[in-house]
């Protein structure tokens, strides 16, 4: 934040399972969902980002300590293979988020191990895949994540996600969606955990071409920019034993930055 | 809440380790920390509660499915043996909390597996055990958890807990403490997770007689009453597939209660 | 709260203008909107409440110091004559709310002087009176205000209220509505101000028979019960000059209750 | 935010009464409190700001429609003459804040008409002017307003402000202070109202040289930067009548930006 000129290092993660199993998904997302998400970020943040992708089938799911240490913002898409993600990778990602790495969780990622671990709740919801029209309404028009998109964003066909969405109260509720079937959903939510920022954005599905929608791509790019950490290195909160008067020592009380 | 006449079934959990290892702790808490906590709840909620205790060394730590199903409110104290608590018991407690069981987390319980699991963060803090005086200030004088206690509560000797306390923003910040060394701490915090309520209250330590302090006992009893679930049976949030128009069927839209 | 057996003294306020001007409204609400609201509270809280009504045309709008001092919960409905409410009555009501009196603000009361004064914002919104169907979704199924009603509550015909609703973030977001036209609205919101609780609930309009809907009546009654103050007398927050060590004097540190 | 290169136009407002009445204050703040606050902002945001000052005794208190329309961020200091501020100027400032202008409220400004109007509460607190040492603790180390300052900030002598501070729950609680007398205070709080951001920061007083403290000056400058609106023109939330399907018209659904 303090150094706005810094290039944002983004890692777009995708389980990449539907694309391999289902021809229709492959046709819809020829570069994979990760390819579409990455392209949307790049086109909206031209010259401000370096985007790489990582997928489930790679060693350590492509999320080694080195990759995460070199990542400012991780985006997460998963659906069919949440339980295939290794617990130690989940713990590693959690540690990086709490240490400052930004995290953007997309759609069915609500049920990923990493999101459930960070939320502490079931993250369950109502759903239906019946070509509902989704309208994404902005509740905070001047929030940076809502910049440049209409309210509502009109998504002609999409999976329905409905309340109750079992999450802790978000720190900010930026978007609420309605569906043609009548349901509502908190579709854009921010959370702070440790020194990291998290944004959950629900539009997007393997069965609909939502990640080609220019407004959806803009929101994801906005979210990436919004969760960028203040510092490029990790700062994990930790237990500290502090003798009486420790802060009266000038060296001990130096500013974080 | 709806049935205020219902007896509150409380299970007071304690790792019960310091009491067995250290004579000074045994002298301070002859009935164990769990004994002191249970006595404080009983004296403040006479006729409204049934209190049992459970400890680490019991089979399944005394927290079987049957015990939890029969518990409205669980209180948690642990310190030296957090890592001895079995993961499956932690998952079971989490499931009961998300399903509605109230949870009161005490002092060093901030580092318990169950609290960290429900918060999703490190729950780390600053600390010092040097006989600081703690003053517990009420920020919400009409909150039920603050009923009947002075502001500040004066605790002559106590371990210092200081910020940064790495938790999600609490839903309500009821108490903030200062210490004679100058530090501050969010000492009384409420959280809603799933259908359950959680209250964290920091005063209380094995090395000081804080659980004999009448105001501390009153707050713990108030917290027990405040986290009581609306229903005596568990209601875990769950994924629901909902066909279009499901709610127009009268039977499908029946009220929760 | 501490004394659940206490009778709740409710004052139902209504500007009572549409009922006098428009025959259709009089036919819909023969006892006035205040009559319908009062009846709904009485039928749901039988034996727990004493309900009186007050209207704009009465001296001091029926809200004298004596009436307010004798009121635990005030409900507010206004629409056509917000600017006819005297500023000194608004200030008096505000003082009572900050001192602990509960306030339930209904529908077009979003634009009342008292609600805008307590919120500090414009409280503006989108609207349309075109017989939309409203669906009121519960986000917090175990919240006392949602007790006993289905999710969604189906209101066959109602005025549309849509986001952006210009209010401070509510302390709790209990209900979100969708409308057949596609809009969404935060229709059930709680706020704490001073020592008082406020609940805003949007369903209900002079042009539709919404206050005869049993679920709407149930929610209003639940809200009345939820905003009841902890104490029957007012406790307005006030400036206090405190000499060093004031709280070490036992008398000075007596508990609130 | 979107245009980080834009110069921030700051208006520093001060009632400027103590400085004229009391020689000691004049000696402490030879350029007035507004002069010290302005200098602190300029030294920390060199090249990023244009700072002007305005005071009570000027026509319309120096806060004409033209000045406010040309202001991105207004800072407010008042104490002895809150009731001398004209109601119409307060309403004008409120309108500009809700339309997007940032507001930084300092110390005794907690009791200003504008802050009370925006909060809706009494904004009362405990106080004592007896040379307490204040320690300002950061609760959110990566919040932009906490950038570059130690935790705690040590203020050798300061007026004591203590809880209960009667404000709505802040959107973010960035700083909590303790005082040598033992009290605690929420000394750094953010609020969103309408399309505007507000930051309240309590350190600073006419009777102590706190506005010469480099860390206090840094926080005020950080707060100024943090409340800068997304847009340079005002966007007051307003009532909108929306016919069914209005958003399906492409022109009607254009993005805010």
Automatic annotation (TrEMBL), chains A, B, C, D:
<dbReference type="InterPro" id="IPR029010">
    <property type="entry name" value="ThuA-like"/>
</dbReference>
<protein>
    <submittedName>
        <fullName>Trehalose utilization protein</fullName>
    </submittedName>
</protein>
<dbReference type="InterPro" id="IPR029062">
    <property type="entry name" value="Class_I_gatase-like"/>
</dbReference>
<dbReference type="InterPro" id="IPR009381">
    <property type="entry name" value="Trehalose_catabolism_ThuA_prok"/>
</dbReference>
<feature type="domain" description="ThuA-like">
    <location>
        <begin position="9"/>
        <end position="227"/>
    </location>
</feature>
<dbReference type="Pfam" id="PF06283">
    <property type="entry name" value="ThuA"/>
</dbReference>
């Amino acid at each position: 934040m303090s150094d706005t000129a810094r290039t944002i290092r983004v890692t777009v993660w995708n389980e990449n399972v539907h694309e391999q199993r289902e021809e229709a998904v492959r046709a819809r997302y020829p570069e994979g969902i990760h390819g579409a998400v990455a392209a949307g970020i790049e086109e909206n943040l031209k010259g401000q980002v370096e985007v790489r992708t990582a997928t489930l089938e790679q060693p350590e799911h492509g999320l080694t300590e080195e990759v995460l240490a070199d990542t400012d913002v991780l985006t997460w898409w998963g659906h069919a293979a949440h339980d295939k993600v290794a617990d130690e990778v989940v713990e590693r990602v959690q540690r990086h988020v709490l240490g400052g790495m930004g995290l953007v969780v997309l759609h069915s990622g609500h049920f990923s191990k990493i999101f459930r671990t960070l939320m502490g709740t079931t993250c369950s919801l109502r759903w239906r895949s019946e070509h509902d029209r989704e309208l994404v309404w902005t509740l905070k028009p001047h929030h940076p994540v809502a910049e440049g998109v209409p309210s509502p964003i009109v998504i002609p066909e999409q999976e329905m996600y409905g309340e109750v969405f079992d999450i802790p109260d978000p720190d900010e509720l930026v978007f609420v969606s309605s569906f043609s079937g009548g349901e509502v959903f908190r579709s854009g939510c921010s959370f702070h955990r440790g020194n990291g920022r998290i944004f959950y954005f629900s539009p997007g599905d393997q069965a609909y071409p939502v990640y080609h929608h220019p407004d959806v791509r803009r929101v994801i790019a906005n979210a990436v920019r919004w969760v960028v950490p203040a510092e490029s290195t990790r700062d994990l909160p930790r237990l500290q034993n502090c003798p009486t008067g420790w802060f009266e020592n000038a060296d001990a009380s130096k500013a974080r930055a």
